Amino acid sequence: MSWKKTADWYARSLADPAAAHAAWREHGVAVLPLGARFEAVRIPDRSPTRPCRAPTTGSWTSR
Fold it and tell me: Where are the domains of the chain?
């Protein structure tokens, strides 16, 4: 599954999926409800030297 499809799937857990995409764009994170679509989210280890892919842009950033 592509990162775009995955981001869209997570965003649809909100009544307004655009709000999740806006939060990712503006803050790099979004608060999503657990229980309906998924029960837990695994957050991979991200060190300052390890790049991560931003869900809405597809660009590489360091966090």
Answer: 1-27+51-63
